[in-house]
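Q: My labmate handed me this sequence with no annotations at all. I'd like to see what the chain might look like in three dimensions before we decide whether it's worth expressing. Could you predict it?
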Amino acid sequence: MEQLHRLMDTIGYQFHNEQLLRLALRHPSLGAPNNQRLEFLGDAVLQLLISHRIYLRHPELQEGALTRMRQRLVCEQALADIARRIGLGLYMVMDHGSDTSGIREQDGSLSDAMEAVLAAVYLDGGFERAREVIERFWPEEQNPTEDAKSHLQEVLQSRGRQVPAYELVREEGPDHARVFTVRVCLDDGSSAEAQGQSKKRAEQAAAAAMLASLEGKPVQ
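A: Here is what I predict for the chain of 220 residues:
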C-alpha cells in the first residue's frame, strides 16, 4: 500500500480505485488478469493526447511532419525512458523467473507498463487527468524536419535495419550558386534523391524524402 502511494505521489495523481493501478503493474508472466488490456487502451489514450497537443502547438506543420513528431514521443524507447525516470520498474509485479531474468528493466516491459498506467489514470480520472500526467513527464517535442537524417536512422534502427548510406550524385551550377544532388540508399536497395544548396542540406532533404516514402505519404 505504501509503495502504491509513493508511485501516485510520483506521477502526480491519486487513484480513487487503487485496483486499477495494481492491475497496471501486473506483468503478463503472472497470467490473467494482467496489464495487457490496459496497455492496449493506454496506447490509444497516449496517441490521442499527444496528437492533440502537437496539433495545437504546431499549426505550421503538415500531416507528415506531425506524424514523425508523434512517433518520436510515443515510441517504445520514449515510454521506457519516462518509466525509468519515475522508477516504474520497482513497482512492477511479475513471477520470479521473469524478475531474475531482467525483464523488469527491459524497454518493452517498461513501455507496456507505462501505457497501462496511463490507461488506469484515464479510467479512474478521465482524459484531463491523463493529460496532466503526460504534460508532467513527456518532453517538449522537437520539429523532426530539423534533423531528418537522425530521425531516419532512428526509424531504421527501431525496425532492425542497417544505417542508411549517402552518396553525392552530382554538383551543378556556378560556384556562387552550386546545387548538390544526394542519394540515400537503404539495405533493401531502395533509394531517394534530393537537392540542396550544400551537400549537408541535400542529405537532409534526401532523408526527409526517404522518411516520407517509408511512411507511405507524400513529402510535406
